Amino acid sequence: MIRDFFHDRRGNYALMTVITMIPLMGAVALAVDYTELVRERQQTLNALDAAGIATAQQIVAGANDTDAKAYAKTFFEANLRHVLPANTTLTVTLPNNNAGGGALVLEAAVTYRPYFLPAAVALLGGTPGQTNIGFSARSEIRLKNTLEVSLVLDNSGSMTQLGKNTNKVRFDLLKSAAKQLVDQLAGQAQLMKQVSNSVQFSVVPFAASVNVGPANAGASWMDTTGVSPLDQENLDWSTLTSANSPNQYAVKSGNNYYARGSAWDPAQLNNVLTRFSIYKWMKRIASCTKDSNGVCTSNIVYGPIASWGGCVESRPYPYNIQDTPASTSTPATLFVPMFAPDETDNTDSYSRSAYNNWHTDAPSGGTDAERQRYMPKYFNAGIGTKVTPAYGMNEGPNTSCSTTAITPLTDVSTTAGATSVKKAIDAMAASGATNVPEGMAWGWRTLSSAAPFTEGRPESEKGNDKVLIVLTDGANTYYTPNSLRYNDLAGAKSTYSALGYLKPYNTTYSYGRPFLGTSSNVSKTDYSNANYTKAMNEHFATLCNNAKAANVIVMTIALDLDSSNTAEAAQIAALKTCSSDSRFRKDPTDPSKPKKLFWNSTGATLSDDFREIGNELSNLRIVS
User: Fold this and answer.
1) What gap in Å lies between CA 31 and CA 26, rounded to an integer?
2) Contacts of 375 (CB under 8 A, 6+ apart)
3) Among 83, 58, 22, 65, which Cα is nearest to 618's?
4) pLDDT, tens digit, for every residue of 200-256?
5) How far apart are CA 104 and CA 91, in angstroms?
6) What backbone phi and psi angles, to 5 degrees, belong to 372?
7) Is 269 helix (H, G, I), strand (E, B) or coil?
């Protein structure tokens, strides 16, 4: 019977299943533990990455070490999902004490408790006797991104008006908001001790022109030899002859005029005459012995009429909207000092005077255009018979030079650097017209690694962002004299600014500079403020595209612009189009698109908008 039982195969399926289930159940148990272990590891990594990015935001926003670590722990544990926080230990290494430098490192030690012991412990890497398995995970967020920010700020006269919905002047609101931004980013920069010049700011005040600083008069990128096609645009050196000025006259050789006569200083004699020459050799009566009528009779002491204020003319197209380096091999790329010609003494039939009559004309005859470009008047101090003061900024030959000088890129991670930038913001003064393209072009040049300003990092350097922040409270403006109730007897068709005159006396170009490079939408014979604005807007649009194509991030701010005003509505649209796309935020009206880095601000919202700009700049400093 026993032999029959062992040979009977009819009931062995259940027995075979029981015997087979032993290894099968072991495999299932191991698979369960392995799957759970992998899941917990991945969840830990996800939580570390999320906590790292969130904590990096806190660090660059200025959180102290204690708060940053506490925030990291809270954020990490909140994102663990199926992993018990009690089974984890988080270690946070902050950038300012990390030997590797410039990185936020989050490391988690996790204890995994297997469902099936002891096989799971042995098979999953443990040792005999263990009741759990430990593993670790690591996430690193690089904070070594550097920033170069140019504040291109409208300093036109309209900035003295009250901001919308506030009782404060726009200019005061702007200065406060801009300094707030510097403080916000400076606080972050001070945490980046392993990176030199981690955050730098330049300040570019603009109105009708931009001031590069009078200390740059002899810079290699300035036209010091009169080779630029702009140098003689409104000056007729041929009128300075030996016949009317026998001891101080000019002789032409090639395209330039050279100083001749005993009255010239040896440093100028036989050398090229330029606009700098006029500033240097113009004379006024500084002091004298006077008669009873206050007329100088003897002991006359002469002094300079004015010194160059630091403003330069806009380069001719296309260099006005490019970052092309200045080179003597291409004279049009050189920068020419502004010199506002003395305009006619005559008045028109409406008794309107010239916009910029700051000197006595000579000769008394001739057309008004001839009187305007006549050179001997600048070198004949005898024309004046009384003591006269020197001209300063935004007057005389410096008319339309109303802004303070550019502040080049300055490291704000130091107290001295941040203070310097904020002092430059405070020193700004509001006066004059609005030339946004010229301001933006110079903002770009301050970010560039090439001259005129060379403080910018190489354009090829990874991890560095160059940012232009452009703010204006008005449309681009360039005026006809008549629109300002002055005469235009000389036929210049505009007041003088960084764009020169619309119709200069002596030019190699087909049109005035505002019209160069513009489309058929801009009439070349329409001498009106509206048409000038249209031309400037076209240059601005092309400049924006050029800057963005060079990987410059453009942020634009329209301050108190009125969308019901045609010119201002066009400026709002142009500023928005000019702006770059955010790398981090979506358009709230269309989540499929990135948000434009454009702010339509009022005086009341300006501070909050600058704080939002600061947050956007903070995001740029995080590279996971």
Assistant:
1) 9
2) 235, 236, 237, 239, 240, 250
3) 58
4) 999 999 999 999 999 999 999 999 999 999 999 999 999 999 988 889 999 999 999
5) 11
6) -70, -35
7) coil
Q: What is the largest CA-CA distance in the chain?
A: 158
Q: How far apart are CA 140 and CA 110, in angstroms?
A: 17
Residue given tokens 């300094």 in the structure block:
179
Half-sphere exposure of 620 (CA within 13 A, CB side): 25
| pLDDT confidence of residue 257 | 97
CA distances from 494 to 76, 292, 403, 486, 528 (A): 64, 42, 20, 10, 9
Q: What is the rounded CA–CA span in Å between residue 210 and residue 394?
A: 12
Q: What gap in Å lies between CA 225 and CA 315, rounded to an integer?
A: 16
The model's pTM: 0.81
Cβ atoms < 10 Å from Cβ of 188: 23
Q: How far apart are CA 55 and CA 50, in angstroms?
A: 8
Residues 514-565 pLDDT 10s: 999 999 999 999 999 999 999 999 999 999 999 999 999 999 999 999 999 8
Strands (E), 233-282: 249-253, 256-260
Question: Strand, coil or helix: what is 590?
Answer: strand
Question: Residue 112 above 80 pLDDT?
Answer: no
- Angle, CA of 331, 337 and 342, to the nearest 5°: 125
Q: Which residue has the tokens 């500079």?
A: 513
61-78 core/surface letters (b: 16 or more CB in 10 A; e: else): ebbeeeebbebbbebbbe
Q: Identify whether the C-beta of residue 301 lies closer than 8 Å to the C-beta of residue 287.
A: yes
Helices first, then strands: H and E counts in the chain: 12, 17
Among 285, 264, 262, 263, CA closest to 273: 264
Which segments of 8-65 are extended strands (E)? none
> Does residue 332 contact residue 316 with C-beta atoms inside 8 Å?
yes
Q: Which tokens in the block code for residue 104?
A: 């936020």
Separation CA 445–CA 210 (nearest Å): 12
Distance of CA 386 to the CA centre of its chain: 46
Amino acid at 350: Y
**Helical spans, DSSP H, in 61-143:** 65-78, 119-123
pLDDT digits (tens, 9 = 90+) for 364-374: 678 999 999 99
Which residues sit opposite 139 in a β-bridge? 106
Compute the radius of gyration of the chain from its Cα atoms.
Answer: 36
pLDDT score at 224: 96
User: Cα separations (Å) of 323 from 326, 424, 546?
Assistant: 9, 24, 9
pLDDT tens digits for range 471-500: 999 999 999 999 999 999 999 999 999 999
Helix (H, G, I), strand (E, B) or coil at 260: strand
